[in-house]
Amino acid sequence: METALGAANWVLGNVLKKLSDDLVAAYVASSELGLNFTRIRTELSYTLGLLHAAQGRDAVCYNPGLQRLLEDLNRIADEAEDALDELHYFMIQDELDGTREATSEVGGGLSGHARHGRHAVRHTVGNWLPCFSCSRTQDNAYNKTNDGRVGALQFDRVAMAKRIKSLIEDIQTLCAPVSNLLQINHSSYPTATKAASLKRPNTSSTITQDKLYGRGTIFEQTIFDMTDGAYRSEVLSVLAVVGPGGIGKTTFTQHLYNDKRIEEHFSVRVWVCVSTNFDVVKLTQEILKCILAVENEESSRAHETTNLDQLQKYVAQRLKSKRFLVVLDDIWKCNSESEWKNLLSPFTKGETKGNMVLVTTRFPNIAQVVKKTNPIKLQGLEPDEFWEFFQACIFGDTDVELEQHDLIDTAKDIAKKLKCSPLAAKTVGRLLKNNLSREHWVEVLERKEWENQKNEDDIMPALKISYDYLPFHLKKCFSYCALFPEDHIFDGLEITRLWIAIGITDSSGENREVNNTRSRYLDELVDVGFLMKGDDNLHQHYVMHDLLHELSQVVSSEECMNISGSCFRADGIPPSIRHLSINIEGKLNEYYERELDKLKERIYVRNLRTLMFFGEYNRGIISILNETFKEMKSLRVLFIYVDSIESLPCHFSKLIHLRYLKIRSPLLLEPSLPSALSRFYHMKFLDLTHWGGGYGVPSDISRLVNLRHFLAQKELHCNIPEIGNMKYLQELKEFIVKKRIVGFELRELGKLRELGGTLTIRNLENVGNKDEAHEAKLVLKRNLVSLRLVWGQQTVASDVVDGLQPHPNLRALSIINHGGTIGPSWLCTDVCFEKLEFLHLEGVSWNTLPPFGMIPYLTELKLKKIAGMHQFGPDYGGVKDKCFTHLKKIVLSNMPGLLEWVAEADCQSFPRLEIIECIDCCNLSTLPTSECPSLCVLQIFGCPKLSLRLIPCTSKTTYIHVVKEFSDKLIHYEKNELNVNGYYGALDFDNMDKVKKISIRDVIQTSRTELQMQNSLRGSCAEECDSMSSEEYYSDTCLTSEFGDSVRSITHGRISLNEFRLCGESLSRALNCFPALSELEISYSVKYNREHKRVPYFVGTEYHEQGVQFLSSSSLQKLKVSNCGNLTLPVDNRGGLLGLTSLESLTIENCGEMLCQWSMGEEIMKPFPTSLRELTIIGESSKLAMSLLSNLTSLTHLELVDCENLTKDGFNPHIVFGLKKLVIYNVSKWTRSGNHVHFGIVENHRDPTAGDYNENREENDCDSVTESHNTVVLGDNTEANDCDSVTESHLSVVLGDNTEEKIPCSVAADLLVEVARMVNEMSAGSFYQLEHLEVDTISAVLVAPICSRLATTLHTLSFRRDRWVEKFTEEQEQALELLTSLQKLTFEGCYGLQTLPEGLHRLRSLEELVIVDCTLELFVQGKELKARHPGLLVTMW
User: Fold this and answer.
1) What is the dihedral sign for C-alpha 382, 383, 386, 392?
2) 422-433 and 408-417 are packed helices; what angle lies between their axes, rounded to 10 degrees?
3) Which residues contact 941 (CB under 8 A, 6 or more apart)?
4) How far apart (Å, rounded) are the C-alpha atoms in residues 1076 and 475?
């Protein structure tokens, strides 16, 4: 009933607004309709008054007769509003075209009768369609007249007159009985306030839920703060617990109140349930009742007095020497802050500290009024905590374990829908617990039965009571949020545009007043907790809790509908729906199409007011949707996605009621927007932000005379001719002055009196004089925030800029390429901008520049290409003793004439300056950084003469970037890291107390002593600091004393040594003085000559091998040595790296023969500690055996790449059992000649995995073939028996040019053969952890014993440079199919492989196939596979 009252009130109010328009009122009052207009308006106003009064009372008793009459009144008033809106449309068209087709006759003139007669004849001969539908114009979005303008719709005066007369008479007929019934209802039910009508259950301190689920961290923190923390020292603290209904505020507070620690801490505890009745006297009485009386108290009935003064004295007296806790639960309203302070006043008179008032409320605005500390904001439980609570709500204290119940999947699906709300868990738990059948639970899930529960302690009633408390305008605003998808991020302007377009809020009046009203509505919804402001700093947005979104759908279910997903049922959608949104998710199935077809029969599509499509969809879906909604005529709001102009909705050009149109599209071929846009005279908001078409606009688009916001790229804005006709337009991104094109003169801007936001005016060289510039009337545009005035390169009249004076409210101003010698007087002489914050001058040559210091609130100044400016400072422009007190950022760019930036010492002329940028100021010599105590960011590029003082200049500096022109950066300081390269100034380490990593190269004025002072230092890197080499950098004594002392204090240290001259024994001594290091990286970058022989990197240093030793360390966890061709790891009694007992990660990369001393004999001692978990060796050419790694049984990551002389000798298979990643291959084993890779057939070869599994192998003609090696013949004229023998370590490869080269065989194959042999002996969990495998052998991997053990873990498999396999055998195919978890498969450099595995499509887990540098056959097959299986990502190169 209340909904029907509100809707009738709203719709009837809209009709009266239409009738208030002078032109519409004149038409309705004309003799053509024969109506008594004054009487009609009086009767409608009377009924509207009664409706408004009924809304303010307690819930009206349900009256079926009144309900039916209100529904009929809503329907007819809607139709009347449409008719009056159409009439107004044609009146606007008359005004634009200079016609009088829809104008009422004035004074009974003959012209009006004649016009009516012409329309009557036309109506009689067959134009039977009502109103605009009688247009003979073809319905085409691009239909134009000869002058390129869209054709006008024709007006049927006779049909319109009959229609309006009939509807208004029908409204009159209904108003009388509605008014009578409302009066009867009013006399029968006395008026009551909304607050009084809300019946809230009383609460108490008694715990109703024995266990507090979740909230553990915040609960314990709150207990601590109340007893021992922040609140203990305060006389009185107020803590608010805020959150939506049903979130658990009262439960949380009950557990706090009854906690033993709280009981012991507070000698007096009081619990009062406030609810909607916030009365200071009554609340004080309730509190007084709960406090024991003191001795000698004057009255034993003190709480019965109504004298507030006496009550508060009693409270203060009883609490005087006691620490107390007062809980005010469930506060719904507090009229003012003064009222709240009045309630608290007796609590501030005590002698003790640590007193608390704890408030619970569902309204954030209440929390803001009462808070003295940051409130506790309760949201939903964490998923795991909610799942535990949900089970408890279903089964209680029974022993049923849902995890083992056959309802587990259904329960989890239901839980996901409840959004972790405790009250939702209770509601649904009650529904499920009495019927533990899957059928019942599925029905609850599919129908969302919890939304239909009516008990006051169910979720929707608990939330709806908050909704019922809202004023009607906020109810309407909130209910239309149901049209947006769940989890939608609401742009503040987007949702307020919707409210305006459908008539919830009025858009008439001044822009500022309208904007303030819309902003107030949003803020009110935030204050009552129905919206939450987002945290994104880039732009303001709002979000809505999922359960509140469901509430919006419930309360608007008769009017609004959001169709989401492909399972909707058209039969479940009420026929009364007027506002519809559809989320398109992927392709539409046949069921969806059938339901859409039913939908157009189910609802009255013609009367839809809102239609919004979310998501992107193809042309097929567009056709279906267009067919479904082709009859729509009354739309106010339309959001659509199109892939061509032809895909616009049917009758698009006749949607004359549109207020808000949003079109999204991909990149289109159409050159411009549809011409039909120019017909939408009622349009207020046109959103083309995501329009992908061209930048052409209809030539008559300025006929959109009511347009407020045109959201589009600037290229669309600047192409609008005669834009001055859009007199209500509030923002124009760019305007281009054009000389010989009508409609692009500055006077067009002068007509836009509401213009605000940001405006750029270009091509100002086309403005002839100051008077022409005045026509823009910029000085009158008080809402303009930012203005950019841009000239071309031509010489211009210098007085034009004087005519472009903006309003004093302007916040940002840019003047670019003004060619005159005299600047504007309003900026250079008489500064009139008290609010200006940003000033940008570029390409100007004024004799006198502005006195920057006289702009009081200037926060950012940008000067670029300013000719004749030699000096900058606080007294620039003749202003003495003026400091830039608000300036935060300054940019000086491309100013070769600027010599110095001066500032008087110790005057701090720039106290708030945070950012300095100097770019290409080639003669600038000084910066007063010492006068900038707040400097945070310093960027300098291309200023070679600039001499900086100490860097960083303040302790607040967080970013420095200094770069010479076209060279490496000199200084880069960011995120606690400092990199210095070739900088010859001083570094102030006093201002770098937070630096954790320093990299220094070629620096003069930095000493180790300064580095030693850095207590925050966590790591350092030093390179080529020649200026320090004699005394410090290459002094072992210095490294072991000064720098060593510094590093010993590092707790998690990291040192990176790059291009260092220290080597061998001296490097050992230097490194061993850093016992606290956790990470060490050494890189020498040894160079090679054309013969690929190592040459010294440093001039004058001869290359020779040096042994480096590491002392024992229990802290070093990560060690990387790369490109150190002259370092070796000696064999001694300390055992290489065995002393590094905490080492977990070791990388040896491209160090030549670093391990050469460990390659001879079978040493019992091993080089690596057993603590290693990750070992990577790349490019090690020493002859090594796998026995060196046999002690590394804790490895999780093993990578052996290009270890040409590595053998399997002494291999311990147990080292691979715990691996998660294994990489073993040699890149260099294939030989290339020119652009061709030579490879041939493996003749009579033995499968390297055969071993005992291949009993029938045949012998070939070679004299001997050692175990698990092969003869590969390359070239056209060689034979297998040309090879005498294959040694144990090499294959004989005969190249095309008859040369012979020894290349290594696959050690990976040898190792995997050993693993396969032991597979049956391995424990159940062995080899189950491997996730990533890269090897150069296919046949060794694709065997059943290996693949069966890797089936559930291996997700990445790469075959690199396999030289044996040409195609996959049946056994290999079967083994591959065992890898059921494989996600990525790579073939790289497998030059002999001719076919892909046939069973790839059967690997359901496979997501990606990569083919790199393989045969043409593989690329062709990969392309075919990609075409057949589009879901598989196939990458080839």
Assistant:
1) negative
2) 140
3) 918, 919, 920, 961, 962, 963, 965
4) 65
C-alpha span between 252 and 203 (Å, rounded): 13
Work out the mean pLDDT of the chain and round it to a whole number. 77
State the residue for tokens 């909705």.
Answer: 649
CB 1241 within 8 Å of CB 1262? no
d(CA 66, CA 5): 9
E-assigned strand segments in 1226-1306: 1232-1233, 1236-1237, 1264-1265, 1272-1273, 1285-1286, 1290-1294, 1300-1304
- Do residues 269 and 325 touch, judged by C-beta distance below 8 A? yes
Contact 924, 962 (CB under 8 A): no
Task: From residue 310, give the alpha-carbon distance in Å to each of 177, 299, 301, 346, 366.
Answer: 54, 11, 12, 11, 27
- φ/ψ (deg, to 5) at 672: -150, 175
d(CA 614, CA 599): 18
- CA nearest to 171, candidates 86, 70, 54: 70
> Where along the chain do its domains lie?
2-193, 199-379, 384-468, 472-713, 977-1050, 1053-1193, 1232-1305, 1332-1437
**What single-letter amino acid sits at 582?**
I
Of 815, 740, 741, 744, nearest in space to 732 by CA: 744
CA distance 640 to 1092: 65
Which class is domain 199-379? Answer: alpha beta
Q: Which of 249-258, 1075-1084, 1185-1194, 1238-1247 has the lowest mean pLDDT?
A: 1238-1247
Evaluate whether 575 touches 515 at the Cβ level (below 8 Å). Answer: no
Backbone angles phi, psi at 345, to 5 degrees: -55, -40
Q: Please give the average per-residue pLDDT across 54-65, as a whole number.
A: 64
pLDDT number for residue 1251: 40
Residues 1263-1294: tens digit of each pLDDT: 333 333 333 333 333 333 333 333 333 333 33
State how far the alpha carbon of 1139 is from the alpha carbons of 659, 991, 1113, 1124, 1177, in Å: 78, 38, 6, 21, 19
pLDDT at 1285: 32
Q: What is the pLDDT of residue 1206?
A: 86
pLDDT in the model for residue 55? 66
DSSP bridge pairs for 661: 638, 686
Q: Is the pTM of this model over 0.85?
A: no
Residues 6+ apart with CB under 8 A from 830: none
Q: Look up residue 145 and give its two tokens.
A: 């007249």
Token couple for 1331: 């996730």
Residue 335: per-residue pLDDT: 79
Helix (H) or strand (E) run with residue 249 in it: helix 249-257
Q: Is the peptide bond before 952 cis (omega within 30 degrees of 0)?
A: yes
919 within 8 A of 941, measured Cβ to Cβ? yes
CA dist., res. 933 & res. 956, Å (int): 8
Q: Find, among 768, 719, 760, the residue nearest to 739 by Cα.
A: 768
- Residue showing tokens 């007296």: 317
Question: What is the distance between the alpha carbons of residues 329 and 195, in angstroms, rounded to a whole number?
Answer: 16
CB-neighbour burial class of residue 1343 (10 A; exposed 0-12, middle 13-18, buried 19+): buried
- pLDDT tens-digit map of 216-225: 889 999 999 9
Q: What are phi and psi of 595, to 5 degrees?
A: -65, -35
pLDDT of residue 606: 87
d(CA 935, CA 916): 8
Compute the average pLDDT of residues 354-373. 87
Identity of the highest mean pLDDT range in 124-138, 296-310, 557-571: 557-571
Q: For residue 376, which of 227, 243, 214 has the smallest C-alpha distance?
A: 243
Order of all β-strands in the sheet with 541-543: 490-491, 541-543, 532-533
